[in-house]
Structures are given as C-alpha cells and as structure tokens.
Amino acid sequence: MRLIAFLALLLAVPLAAQDSLPPAPYAYQQLADPQQEAQAQALMQTLRCLTCQSQSIVDSDAPMAGDMRHEVRTRIAAGEQPEAIRAWLVERYGDYISYAPQVSAATWPLFAIPVLLLLLAGLIVWRRLGKRA
Amino acid sequence: MIANFGLAALWLAAALAALQCLAGFAALRGEGQALAGVVRPVAVVQGALCIAAFAALLLAFVWSDLSVALVAQNSHSAKPLIFKLAGAWGNHEGSMLMWVSIMAVAGGLIALVERRLPEPTILATLGAQAFVGLGFYAFLLFSSNPFERLDPAPAQGMGLNPLLQDVGLAFHPPTLYLGYVGLSVAFSFAVGALLTRQVTPEFARVMRPWVLGAWIFLTIGITAGSYWAYYELGWGGWWFWDPVENASLMPWLAGTALLHSASVLASRDALRAWTIVLGVIAFSMSMVGTFLVRSGILTSVHAFAVDPERGTFILALLAIYIGGALALFAVRAGTVAEGERFALMSREGALVVNNVALSAILGIVLLGTLYPLVTEALGFRVSVGPPYFNPVSAVFAIPMLLVLTVGPLLRWRRDRFERVRGPVILIGIVLVAVLAAVAFFYGIGLLPMLGIALAAGIAVASFMPLRGRSLRRLPLPVWGMAISHFGIAVALFGMAADSAFTQERLIAAGVGQATEVGPWQVRLDSVRPVAGPNWTAIEGRLLAQYQGGAVYELTPQARSFWAPAQETNESALLTRWNGQLYAVLGEEAEDGRWQLRVWWKPFVTFIWYGGLLIALGGVLALIGRVTGDLRRRFARRKIAARHVDAMA
Fold it and tell me: What's the pLDDT tens digit per position in A104-120?
C-alpha cells in the first residue's frame, strides 16, 4: 500500500512541477542577432497558439505558446530555415497550427476561389465598360 | 411585474408586425387597398411598443428585479448603474431585443417622415421591414425570451464578467447593431422597390441616408473594437483577422460598396440591378455576422452541434430572407432595366471598379472566415490567418486604391484623359517618388512599402476634387467624400508604418536597469503592489526618455481579479504625435527581475485617427443630405401654400 502511494507520488511529481516550472528561456527573450530575431518573429506571427482562441504564439501568455516561441527561436538560432520549421510543426501538430494555409487536397478551394473571383471581376468590368463606350 | 409588462408589449408589437406585413403586401393588389391606410400608423405604434418593451428590460436591470432570469444571470445589485444598464444588452436575449427594437423604431421613423417615394413602394417597404421583424420576434419569443421569470427569485445576481465592465465595451454592441439594423432598412427598401418596380434615382436618394447612417456606426464600431483589442489584450496587435472581427468587417465592405453604387443610381440612374443586389448582400452580411457571433459556432463547431437551436434559427431566417429576396430579384430582374450607360473613362466607370473590388474582397473575407468552419465540420482543421488574408485581399485592394486616386476627378458619363492629365501626373509623381524613397532608405516588405506610397498618393488625391472650387460654397457631401478618402490614406499609412517599423524589446529587467527600444530609453524605476476595488496588482514604474529629452512615466500593471479569478495585463501607453510607446509588465523572473515587454510603434495611432476621419466624412455627408432634403421639403411646402393663397 505504502509502495503504491509512493509510486503515485513519484508519478505525480512531474505533473506538479509543470505548473511551477519557469518559462523556457527563449519564451520571453529575444535572439541576440536582430536579423535572426526578425526571422523568428515573422514565423511566430503565423503560428497558432493551440490552447488559445484565435491568437498567434507571439500574442499569448499561455505556457504552450511560450514553449513554442522557445522552440522556434532555438531552431532559428541553430540556422534552420523558417519554412522548414513550419513544415516540422505542421507534420507534428497538423495544418491547424499554421495561419498560412499551404495548397493541399484540403485547402485548394481557398486558392481556386480567389482566382475565380479575379476572373469574374475582370469579366464584369470588361462587360460593363468595354462594350459600350 | 415590469417583466410582464415588457413581455405583453413585445407580444403586441409582434402581432402588429404581422398586421403591418399583411397590410403592406396586400396594398400591392387592387382588393387590398382598404388596408393601405393602417400600415403607417401600425408601424409607428409597433416602434413605440418596442421602446416600451426595451425600457421595461432596462428598468428590470436598474431595479435589479431578480425574478427575471436574465437579470439574475447577468447583474448584481451592487454594480454601478452604467454597467447595470449595459448588462441589459451585454447578453444574447437582451441584445436580440435591442436589435428588434432598433428595427421597429426605424420602421416607425420611415412611416412618420418618408413621403418622397410613391405610396405603394413605401407600403411594400414597410411590409418587408415587418416581415424581417417577424422572424426576429419569433426568435425572441420562442427561443430567447428576455423576460423569462424565476420562481423563487434568487437572493443575489451572478454579476458581469469584470473584463466586460468597460465603458468602451458597454457601447460597442449597440454601435454595431445600429449599423446592422440600418442595413436591414436598406434591404427592405430594395425589396419594396423591386415589388413595385420602382428602382429609380429617387429610391436611391431615399435609401442613401439609411445606408450612410449604418455605415457610420459600423465604421466607428470597427475602429473602436480594433483599439480595444490593441490596448486591452496587451500584445500590441490591432487586427487579427479573427472571425469576430471579420463578422463586423463584412457588412462594412458590403455597405461601402452599396454607398457608392447608390450614389451612382441617385445621380445618374445607372447600376440599378447592382444596387439592389448589394442591398440584399449587405443585410445578408449583417445576418452572417450575427450568426457567427450569436450561434456559438466560433468557440467550436462541436459546441454548436450540441446546442444548435439558436444558430439554426438564425440560419433559417437568413435562408428565408436572402433566398426570398434573391428569388424575387430573379423574377423581377427582367423588369429592372440596366439603366443609363457610361464610358470606361467616367465617374461611374471608376465606381464600378470600386464595387467589383470591394465585393471580391468581401468574398475572400467570407471564404477565409467560413472555410475553417466547414473543414472542421468535415473532420480536419485548418487555420486561415494574416498570411492568407493580407496578400490575397491586396490583389484587389491595390487596383481599387489606385482607381480611388483618380475616380473623384472624373466627370459623370464620359470624360477625356486630357482633362485630368495634370492632377493625375502629379499624383503619379508623388506615388512613385514616395515608393522610390521608401525602397531606397528602408528595407521593408513589399506590402508596407506599397501601403505607404498609396497612402501618400491618396492623401494628395483626396483633396484634388476641391481644387478650383469655392470652399465656402462646396456642398457638405463633397467635403465628406474628401475627408473620408483622406481618412483612408491616414489609416493606410498607420497600418503600413506599424507593420514595417515597429520595434520590440523583451527583457528580464532588474529594478534600476535600462534598455533601449527605437528612439526611447526605458528604465525600470520601481515595482510595487497596488489594490483596486476588485483586484490586486503589481505595478511597474517605468521612466522613458525620448532621444535624451524629457522623461515620461509609464505604469503597466499585472492584475489579479478575484471574482472570477483571472489574471490580466494592463498595458501602459505613451502617445506622441509620431507613435506610441507600449509597455507591459510580465511575470517575476528568477533573482528578482521582471519580464518586461516594450514596443515602439511609429504612427500606429494613425490607424484609428484614419478610422475616425472616415466616419467624420460620413457624418458630414449625412448632415448635408438630410439638411438638403429638409430645405427642399420646406420650399415645396411654401410653394404649395402660395398656390392655395392664389386660389383663395
């Protein structure tokens, strides 16, 4: 009995620790190189905070957003390309994490419809104005 | 007691709406003429009853009548009066009652004052207005009764979310609702004109003040909402392309297009069918916005599926009104002739580009807002955000803004390029020079660069239509147009400058430590605890110095509310003419240092100044239109009186 209680406590430690853990270092710290920081910033603005409602990870105090900022900054500092990081995150968390939809089987209407709108707009302007001057 | 009175008034108003609807439509046929006389008085009484019902709800909140379920859920007897009142519309049922009341009052107003259109058109319009109203009465009375009672009444109410106890937020929903409902009036006029085949310039002139009024409220609502998100959320962003924001942007886009096409119809008797369709679309966007915000679908499609009653109700109303109006249009389209013709190089031609581009942008915002909801319902989730909306809408916005610089200079019907060559070349030079200068001196993104250049071009172009005219005799609507267009330039410049030149500094600062952000030196002077009425906070005192000049103080706070328990960051803003310094105090880091976020945002305030200028232009135009109409009416009455005298 005591053993089980001890094991339970042991298992509970990481859970209890999670809340009081200080935020990962790069959650609230910028990269020293301004160019790299700008790259990271541009990428982070287009990543969704998964635990918030309609916020990017730069716009959130949520712990998960902080961890993701740390992840992005660390990888940028290590010289990874922003789009490679995005691809890695999408692979891990799904399309939902990226505010920049990529053309895929699930998203093609997002790109096809504006093209249609463009053609339609051109057609309307041409028909209304082109014919009878 | 007061709740019973309110509910009775609401039922009576609903019954009168049914009568108004029947009588208004019956008057279109020969045998229904007998009922024609009741439509206007019924509309006025319906409006008065709705005012009574809404006043009853307000009184129930002021008196904290806790036997009313809505009061018990949203109020507390110890709340300040202003938030008791705001509590009446800060919830689903109360806000729908407000919607219905504004709509009924608008109908009553039309019935009282509007005499310019043929009587059958007005009666059909009032019938359509009552038909739309009936749907909302049904919604209120059957699924969202604001006067529902509790027995026994609880001893105390549950209070209002502290974040919502903000004066700005108290007036945000009424502002947007006035805009939405104004567009419903435009919709009713469009239906009335279609039914009686009276799509005339006079129809456009009568509808225009309503569209203008709605558009002013929407503009103010969007501008205020954007500033609220900027200072309250503590991350310095001002537009997130969030579905809730898009819900207010879409009616605005449609309303802007409608405003411009209505002015073509009013002045030139062209674009008849287009104006009707835009009137229908503008109100559909109000309904889509209401559906998105009120159905709960945004929190999660699944939450919506669990309790779909309200959402499906609004969706059904949307289908009935919009489907019905479009079907009517399809039947009548043949009888609505296209109207006067015009050349590409004409004021109408430029306004067609405006209309097409605004409609396309509206389509993109609608697509980007609804697409994630559709895919979520199908089982996979995607996100659509700024990287999609910004460039895709820019494809249409940039040509539209270029045409905006020239359009107001052109004559109606047909014009020659030679006539406007001078101003066009001047605007072109300004545009290209600014573009080259920005490209040469600053390495910024393409969109912000184009934004700044277009802003400069539009700013110069907006006052070009005033050249060579007597400024004292210039009609108010022309002033309004110039100021609104100038406001677009101002807002565009603010947006571009903010996205291109914002500087951010994140540090863990010890007390006494300084950092630099842009032209500012910011020092953390002290950190101390403070307490408010329902919160405690840690307050940082920052001393900021602009380029070694005067020292300013900023006091950002990290607040903890205790009922309900919630942590918020109160940002501190320091406004200079050329930008804002924005500071947020974060958590305490190790070894007694504090997380500090500081931004220098050059010219960010121009975004909201621009929004206010756009609205101000609308107000001037509205005053000009209404006083002009009153003056004509007065003159006509005088002539009639003289005529009677001569007869006698």
Answer: 888 899 999 999 999 99
Q: What pLDDT shows up at residue B161? A: 67
Token representation of residue A53: 């409602």
Closest CA to B597 of B505, B530, B527: B505
ipTM confidence: 0.82
The contacts of residue B362 (CB under 8 Å, 6+ apart) are B250, B253, B254, B257, B281, B285
**Which residues of chain B are modeled with pLDDT < 70?**
160-165, 299-307, 563-564, 648
- Minimal Cα distance from B242: which residue of A? A54
Contact check, Cβ <8 Å, B344/A94: no
Report the C-alpha gap between B578 and B571 in whole angstroms: 19
**Radius of gyration over alpha carbons of chain A, in Å?**
23
The 3-state secondary structure of B540-574 reads EEEEEEECCCCEEEECCEEEEEECCEEEEEECEEE
How many contacts does A have with B, using Cβ atoms within 8 A? 114
CB-CB neighbors (< 8 A) of B392 in chain A: 114
Model pLDDT, residue A10: 47
Question: Going by C-beta distance under 8 Å and a sequence separation of 6 or more, which residues neighbour residue A76?
Answer: A31, A36, A39, A40, A43, A82, A85
Are the C-beta atoms of B595 and B475 separated by less than 8 Å? Answer: no
Mutation for A interface: B238, B382, B398, B507, most A CBs within 10 A: B382
Distance (Å, whole) CA B587 – CA B567:
11
CATH number, span A2-101: 1.10.8.640
Structural domain boundaries of chain B?
A: 1-160, 420-501+606-641, 505-602
Residues of B in contact with A120 (CB under 8 A): 360
Cβ density class B467-505: b for 16+ within 10 Å, e for less: eeeeeeeeebbbbbbbbbbbbbbbbbbbbbbbbbbbbbb
Q: Do A121 and B364 touch (CB under 8 A)?
A: no
CB contact under 8 A, B388 and A106: no
